[in-house]
Amino acid sequence: MSTQTPTTQTLPTTSKQWNVIAKGQDGFDNLRFSEQPVPALGDSQVLVKLQAASLNYRDLTIPLGTYPFPTMPGVVPGSDGAGIVIAVGRQVTRFRPGDKVITLFNQEHIGGPLTAAASGTHLGGARHGTLRSVGAFNEQGLVHQPESLSAVEASTLPCAGLTAWNALHGLPGHQIKAGDWVLTQGTGGVSIFALRFAKAAGARVVATTGSPEKVAMLRRLGADHVINYRDEAGWGDVAKAFTGGLGVDHVVEVAGPSSMAQSLAAVKVGGVITVVGYVAGAGREQPGFLDCLLRFCTVRGVLVGSRAQLEDMCRAVDANPEALRPVVDGQLFTLERAREAYEYQWSGKHFGKVCIVMGNSASLGDDTDI
């Protein structure tokens, strides 16, 4: 086995990292921080010095024991990361030392529809993820970072960004186009990305929020209409009224069973509801088959997206970086403070993506490479 490394760089022998040591009752106390040896690099692997990571709702549910998919014992959490290649295995052809890369959520979902096998390769759950200073990944599970983004911004793309991209661009015959109406829910990562992608495509957006303080933020990002769902129990009908009664073309459904009835009320005949999450819980009380049939719409579930879609999205970002620049919450956390980042996101105080920087606290906001 041989590796390629920059001639002036000594490879790290240890990695600072978090592990999920248990799931359930102790919640985020199930996260443990330590320093561990860096394993030998495989022939098809790429060694990445991670610079930044971002959190998703699913990352929070894993230590809480409510994630609905299998996870490996002691997993390094986090699906989303950006970093610099510092070594490659002897069979690697897609990358070389010095390349800036981001991770792919499902490491073996290269293109086309998701398969059962590929769905079991998700980082931070089925495979070790990104909340570590150094990590080895198969070369097939990485893509080049958009040149127009910092590492922090790029670290938000692999899960939330790609999920929103798939929701709006991923269904043949129903890709978003200028003039369409899009309904987004809340101010989390997927919803903000969906708003940005929709406006860049020339679509009109109805956004919802439960926070009066976030209404102005959504309007600044381009939302044409904003509904406070705490004030409007029938917000689906309100959203439909904004379209002249026809209904919205795309619903990006992030909340799950608690909001599906309103999504069905909002969608137009022939429209698409893309179910991407369950941030409001996973209860059993929800609309059924007949409700979907009577709306004559398509309801699809997606688990993020493929590498081909991620590469398409990255090209789109580089082509229009100001319109598609990720929205990062103003509070950054160091790797050592990742548990605090979990608690902060769980509180719901964030706007956009909660991000973690792998440097020390003094480097926050000062390192232009980040």
UniProtKB/TrEMBL annotation:
Record SMART domains? PKS_ER
| Full protein name | Zinc-binding dehydrogenase
Q: Which domain of life is it from?
A: Eukaryota
Q: Which organism is it from?
A: Drechmeria coniospora
Domain (Enoyl reductase (ER)): residue spans on this chain: 27-356
A GO MF annotation of the entry reads: oxidoreductase activity
